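Practice problem. Given the sequence and the SMILES for glutathione, write out the predicted structure.
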Amino acid sequence: MNATTPVLHHYATSPFAEKARLMLGFKGLDWQSVRMPAIMPKPDLLALTGGYRRAPVLQIGADVYCDTALIARVLEALRPGPTLFPASAPLAPVLAQWADSTLFWIAIPYTMQPAGIAALFAGQPPEALQAFAADRKPFSASVRRLPLAEATLQLQAALATLEAQLAEPQPGQRRGYLLGDEPSVADFSVAHCLWFIRRAPPVAGVLAPYARLGAWLDRVLAIGHGRSQPLPADEALAIARAAVPQAADVMSGQGLAAGQRVSVAAADYGTEPSAGTLVGLGEDEIVIRREDARAGTVHVHFPRRGYQLRTED
Ligand SMILES: N[C@@H](CCC(=O)N[C@@H](CS)C(=O)NCC(=O)O)C(=O)O
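Answer key:
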């Protein structure tokens, strides 16, 4: 482990964090693990991001990467093989996006039905559930919450489609993963949603009729999380302070210039903005520079898709 070892800021029960952990395991990368709280306040995380509060966040030195769609691309650049984006599966990012935005918001209300909540919060005081509910209410207010009956129907339809996708393309021919014989980013995006359902045994029976999907989920989860070492948040901030962020460029033709004051926020939910100076803009990446008393000068990176970039001047 050294100053350029990836640092994942995450918590155990977060589905998107599980996606990132599995992708790190798939890449065979060594990483450092900073535990963040599951609810606000998250002062150590916000020292890095300047406002973005979602889980997970990846840090490499003084560069901070928000959103698992971007984290997947960063891990791919760090270690190209095995690839998350096989040339034979051009639809992998599209299927991943469907899972992250649509399947996730079916799996969450389905799992968070009373029996699921009771299992997920078993052994915790009632205040823990109250605090979680109070945190998530404004966080996800912009998402239409599916009633349980509708979530269940939509989940069963999605599971049946995924089961069909895993059928043998030709008799005797294997399809080990959703888009071929090797995993792609799509497998990790679908897997984290189903991983969450499995964590609540009283409601996980919904997965039982789909045998190929169950075997596929076992295979993806067996990839594991690779090798990680715990890191206190203070030490992650010290790593950022001691490092120099990577150079970035602002592409032309977008009506924006390096040095402009901007803010960036998720467009869907958890929309707390991060403000800073625009230093990078690419086809699918926004980079802002910010100064923080604890983290020093950091570059915070966001995907363009799904994020709103606003000028502040
Ligand atoms: N599009 C984001 C979604 C991240 C997300 O929704 N994370 C959830 C946890 S699974 C979250 O941040 N929940 C609120 C929190 O942890 O404070 C990504 O791909 O990283």
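Check your answer against the key. Residues 14-16, 38, 53-55, 67-69, 100, 139, 270 surround glutathione (CB under 6 Å).
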